[in-house]
Specification:
The structure holds two protein chains of two kinds. Chain A is of the alpha+beta class. Chain A is 32% helix and 20% strand. In chain A, helix 10 runs antiparallel to helix 12, helix 11 runs antiparallel to helix 13 and helix 15 packs antiparallel against helix 16. Chain B has 14 helices and no strands. Classes of the chains: A alpha+beta, B mainly alpha. At the A-B interface, helix 1, strand 10, helix 8, helix 14 and strand 18 of A face helix 2, helix 3, helix 5, helix 6 and helix 7 of B.
Chain lengths: 547, 346
């Protein structure tokens, strides 16, 4: 050890010498033009350097995860947008919309005079074109996010290759886009806020290969060159944007494989927004200050820890006899120390989940489930009163990603309650197959909302036969209530119905909610203002930076 | 020699077919459905799943692109042998298939994007390795037991025991952050990426730290091998004879000893170069280098079999070619080595 230390110094000296030589060399390699253009320190202009992982797609036809939608949503404007302050959907590319009395037909009135980055006009046909690309099975790869369009009449026919267009999408004139649904869905304008449901110009059909790496949109920024996979995506301000023009001149999306490397780039002053490596939130908060609302970076208040619209939970496989006993599900829910998981593993940034609906979606109401809280004594009592101690529970999860530590805390709690517990982890690909085949007991899952609606946490996870209902939960009363809620046009009334549904599901406990995800991001000292929403999309159109 | 090369090239064929066949078999054995993995936790709707399977020829379809169903109404999987024959047939036309995960991008395009970075980094690293490793080994051998010999021995011991990714992080911290802060931003090196039009430095600067990291361990091995080989050769009778003839030490080393000592070193460097051309996952991850190693690793975890097959195919060919070149180079280094039939050797 002593030897190593000594040599450490020696190599350090050697390194120092080499350092000077290399750095001098590098000095020669430095480009003369500075990348940050403006020299005054006003809040206009400048280049924002933003860290992302390599996206799946930035072309809206397949934009899905946070990285892809991050880039895509500043290149494209969808019909609507979600306002997090007002907690409701607001106009964007559509200035207004009407819905027919039967709740089946939505008529969107587009903003007139909007242009694509190539000068083409944004009209109703460009929306029809964009949406039909998503449903088209003849694309180089069929989109795997076409489920967004599933409620539209004629979608199935196009997706199966029996039709060449979606009959439910019509364009009576250039600025009117009509969507006919198969069944009433009052949340439809919220679905339309999804960045993927964007308009595309004719160029997307003429040259799809180029469009995939350099999409042409109608948003506040346009591509500057093309997406270089695993390296960077550069965008610049679009001067003919129809809405409020961007403050920033340009954004460099630095695509990094490793969040730790990205953070070193941040420390070196080469990034303006970055994810915080695990275990360092408190330290960096001390250094950079904590954002007041958890979502907005301002000077001196740069660390974001606001809750996200995403939940981490254990899904009970209700085909398993042991888990069909409600008392078992209650005892499991009571035995998990969620606060300990959040505090010890996530420095208190993530919040214990006390139900299926993240607090951020319904701030003023209590949607917690009676049993989704830690009560070791009550759990123990339930187990002993009902003789559940002989039951062996299996915790299934995918290896890596820190899940082992979470599962160990859960296991401790369950064993303390009196259960026998074993863990079973598999690599992600294999785990997903097991989940799909139903060969799991209690499986770890995460759910990130597509749309900021309560329905998006309820329907996909708890409706009978729904895609993400891995545990095969089924309650006809809940299904009926969901059907009703989905048709309720009035926002407040609909929300009230979902609160009731959530309560009912809470009585059945088909899952054990563990925690709601939270941001763990930090902005640089250069950032004047930037809002990073609960869905993980930065509002770069309104962001500003000192040069 | 010509016949030897032809014979070796012909040997490529069974090796290549064997490796790809093993991979094809693995595809069936390893758990994880590549099509389901495209969507992750959010399931694909059944029709879309069928569309994707048809697209990648994983199930049988008719001429209109509609799935063919068996008597029970299930889709029919394309037999593995049929897909293998398709794959090999495609290869002959330069078609390596299409990625499952990257929006159907041709694998040939993906490799054409990534491979140049891997090759360039490997070449820079191997040059560093050869110059520094051979140089240090020679100094160490010639000045045996001197301060320099001990220094080289110690540094190489440390080098082989430091994991490459950790060395990479230290270099990033020192050259990217500490040095930048210490000099007020006057001197520093870029710590990740491979340059590009809006990058701060010229592209070549981005090679420095990854190449040093990639070559560090091998450099130490080369120095060690070089030292021991040169010492062994220097102890041979013919070296003493040469010295007795009156040749200077310098001439003896350069004209007689060096060439003979180089054979194991060249073997090692050649093998190492082959390894580097398969990509360096850790170095590529730490330095965000857009090489083929990380791409292959990602493809394995996501079961993007066309990329795995494509990159392995290319790697197999490249490694076989390099081994051939190394073997041929022996003949140059040691005139006693002759390749060909026994008759020709006569």
């Amino acid at each position: 050890m002593a030897d190593k230390l000594m040599m450490g110094r020696r190599t350090f000296v050697k390194g120092g010498l080499a350092a000077s030589a290399l750095a001098a060399l590098a000095g020669c390699g430095k480009k003369s033009t500075s990348s940050s253009a403006a020299s005054d320190s006003t809040a206009k202009g400048g280049t924002f350097k933003f860290y992302i992982g390599n996206p799946v797609a930035i072309d809206p036809y397949n934009a899905q995860e946070s990285e892809g939608t991050q880039v895509e949503h500043i290149l494209f404007d969808a019909l609507t947008d979600y306002d997090w302050d007002k907690e409701k959907v607001v106009p964007k590319a559509a200035k207004s919309w009407d819905v027919s009395d039967d709740g089946l037909t939505y008529t969107f009135h587009l903003v007139e005079g909007a242009k694509f980055h190539n000068g083409d006009t944004v009209d109703a046909k460009s929306f029809k074109r964009g949406w039909e690309r998503i449903a088209n099975p003849k694309m180089a790869t069929p989109s795997d996010i076409n489920y967004h369009l599933a409620p539209i009449e004629g979608y199935d026919e196009m997706n199966s290759g029996d039709a060449t267009e979606i009959s439910g999408l019509t364009c009576p004139d250039d600025n009117t886009f009509v969507v006919k649904l198969k069944y009433p869905m009052a949340d439809w304008p919220y679905v339309c806020a999804h960045p993927a449901l964007a308009p595309v110009p004719q160029a997307a059909l003429d040259d799809p290969d180029s469009f995939l790496v350099a999409p042409i949109g109608n948003g506040p920024f346009q591509m500057d060159g093309k997406w270089v996979s695993d390296q960077y995506i550069n965008v610049k301000k679009f001067d003919d944007y129809y809405g409020t023009k961007a403050n920033l001149d340009a954004i460099n999306f630095s695509i990094q494989k490793d969040p730790d490397t990205a953070y070193r780039e941040f420390e070196a002053g080469n990034l303006d927004f970055c994810q915080i490596p695990s275990g360092r939130i408190k330290e960096i908060e001390g250094d950079k200050g904590t954002s007041e609302d958890g979502y907005t970076v301002t000077p001196g208040k740069q660390v974001l820890t606001g809750a996200e619209t995403a939940i981490y939970y254990l899904c009970f496989n209700l085909q398993k006899k042991e888990l069909q006993d409600l008392n078992v599900r209650k005892a499991i829910n009571l035995a998990i120390d969620r606060q300990k998981i959040c505090d010890t593993l996530f420095e208190g940034s993530r919040k214990p989940a006390d139900g299926a609906i993240p607090t951020i979606l319904d701030k003023d109401n209590d949607n917690s489930w009676e049993y989704a809280k830690y009560d070791a004594d009550a759990a123990k009592k339930l187990v002993s009163d009902n003789n559940l101690g002989s039951i062996e529970l299996e915790l299934d999860y995918n290896s890596g990603g820190g899940h082992e530590d979470i599962m160990s805390i859960i296991q401790d709690g369950l064993e303390a309650a009196g259960f026998k517990v074993k863990q079973s982890s598999q690599e992600w690909a294999a785990y997903l197959s097991s989940m799909s085949e139903g060969s799991f007991f209690m499986g770890r899952l995460g759910w990130i909302a597509d749309y900021p609606t309560m329905d998006n946490f309820i329907y996909p996870n708890f409706y009978t036969g729904s895609d993400n209902n891995y545990g095969k939960y089924s309650n006809t009363e809940v299904d009926k209530a969901i059907d009703e809620a989905r048709q309720t046009e009035d926002d407040d009334e609909r929300r009230a119905k979902y609160r009731e549904i959530n309560k009912k599901i809470g009585e059945d406990l088909p899952i054990a909610p563990i925690m709601f995800y939270a941001h763990n991001h930090v902005g640089s000292d250069r950032v004047q203002k930037m809002y990073y929403d609960p869905q993980g999309k930065a509002e770069l159109g309104s962001a500003s930076i000192t040069a | 020699m010509g016949r030897y090369i032809v014979k070796r090239v012909l040997q490529f064929i069974p090796v290549f077919l064997g490796v790809t066949l093993i991979l094809f078999l693995m595809e069936n054995v390893v758990p994880g459905d590549p099509i389901k993995l495209i969507a992750g936790e959010k399931k694909l709707d059944p029709q879309t799943e069928i569309n994707l399977r048809i697209k990648y020829h994983l199930i049988e379809s008719d001429s209109n692109g509609k799935p063919i169903y068996d008597e029970n109404g299930n889709t029919i999987e394309t037999p593995m042998w049929e897909r293998y024959v398709d794959y090999v047939g495609g290869l002959l036309h330069g078609d390596l298939g299409y990625s499952y995960q990257q929006n159907g991008k041709p694998v040939a395009d993906i490799l054409a994007e990534k491979y140049p970075y891997t090759i360039k980094l490997a070449v820079v690293a191997i040059i560093l390795e050869a110059i520094i490793g051979i140089g240090a080994g020679m100094i160490s051998a010639i000045k045996r037991y001197s301060f320099w010999d001990i220094l080289v021995t110690l540094i190489t011991s440390i080098n082989v025991s430091i994991p490459a990714f950790w060395l990479g992080m230290l270099l990033q911290l020192f050259f990217g952050i500490v040095l930048k802060n210490a000099t007020g931003g006057a001197f520093y090196l870029p710590i990740s990426g491979a340059g590009g039009p809006t990058a701060e430095f010229d592209d070549w600067v981005y090679y420095i730290l990854p190449a040093v990291t990639l070559s560090a361990v091998s450099c130490a091995y080369v120095a060690r091998i070089m030292r021991s080989q040169l010492l062994e050769v220097l102890g041979q009778d013919y070296i003493r004879t040469a010295r007795a003839k009156g040749l200077s030490k310098h001439d003896v080393i350069v004209h007689h000893a060096l060439k003979n000592a180089l054979i194991p070193v060249v073997t090692y460097i050649g093998m190492d170069f082959g390894g580097m051309l398969a990509g360096a996952i850790l170095t590529e991850t730490v330095f965000n280098w857009p090489g083929v190693g990380y791409e292959t690793y990602r493809a394995i975890t996501k079961r993007d079999w066309p990329i795995v097959l494509g990159s392995v195919t290319v790697i197999v060919v490249v490694v076989m070619v390099i081994n051939l070149i190394v073997d041929i180079s022996y003949a140059y280094l040691d005139p006693r080595i002759r390749y060909g039939s026994p008759k020709e050797q006569g």
